[in-house]
């Protein structure tokens, strides 16, 4: 529980679930007193740039030296919303070369064994749904701020096609309701995206 250097990674061409899960974990780790940074392989769409913490994200393709240094110095690396290191292209090689503890949280099929701790559930609507359950299991839901809730909601909303896709379950809606209880503005998130 002592403060650690933690790097959060996600797949190339990050989407709403990738950015949402990454920044949700970032805000949660910061609240727990850790030195956390998000490192993504490449740039992502402007419609995700409103996300709280966006300005702290390190883009590997544009800041390779800083990104590589962060990964090499990390005590823990989170692997979010991808099931294999090659999905991060060159950043995946940098992560593969580290000996630090890795934690995977993902909902894609057939994950490769790329982490010591793996939270993999293909029945989940999104990685953000699993991130909610991960945070809830470790810290309880009281730590879920509006920023964390907004980021989890972003990922669930985008990966379910605004709750239209078949992956949307009663569990998905129950989590969304708990997120809305934090005071997040769901309509604003929809409009921003």
Give a concise summary.
This protein has 193 residues and is of the alpha/beta class. 40% of the residues lie in helices and 15% in strands.
Q: State the total count of DSSP E strands.
A: 6
- Adjacency order of strands in the biggest sheet: 3-2-1-4-5-6
Question: How much β-strand is present in the residues?
Answer: 15-25%
Radius of gyration: 15 Å
**Uncertain stretches of 5 or more adjacent residues:** none
Helix content: 40-55%
Average pLDDT, to the nearest integer? 96
User: What is the ordering of alpha helices and beta strands?
Assistant: EHEEHEHEEHHHH
How would you describe the oligomerization state of the chains in this entry? single chain
Instruction: Give a quick account of the main beta sheet: strands, pairing sense, barrel closure.
Output: 6 strands, parallel
Helical stretch count? 7
Give the overall form: globular
SSE class: alpha/beta
Distance between the termini: 36 Å
């Amino acid at each position: 529980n002592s403060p650690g250097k933690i790097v959060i990674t996600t797949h190339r061409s990050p989407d709403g679930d990738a950015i949402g899960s990454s920044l949700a974990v970032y805000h949660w780790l910061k609240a727990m007193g850790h030195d956390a940074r998000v490192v993504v392989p490449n740039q992502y769409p402007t419609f995700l740039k409103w996300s709280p913490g966006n300005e702290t994200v390190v883009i590997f393709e544009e800041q390779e030296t800083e990104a590589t240094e962060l990964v090499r110095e990390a005590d823990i690396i989170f692997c979010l919303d991808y099931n294999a290191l090659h999905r991060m292209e060159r950043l995946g090689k940098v992560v593969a070369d580290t000996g630090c503890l890795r934690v995977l949280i993902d909902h894609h099929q057939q994950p490769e064994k790329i982490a010591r701790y793996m939270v993999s559930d293909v029945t989940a609507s999104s990685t953000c749904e699993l991130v909610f359950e991960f945070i809830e299991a470790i810290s309880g839901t009281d730590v879920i701020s509006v920023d964390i809730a907004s980021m989890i909601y972003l990922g669930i909303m985008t990966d379910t096609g605004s709750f239209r896709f078949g992956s949307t379950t009663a569990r998905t809606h129950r989590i969304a309701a708990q997120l809305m209880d934090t005071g997040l503005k769901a309509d604003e998130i929809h409009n921003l995206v």
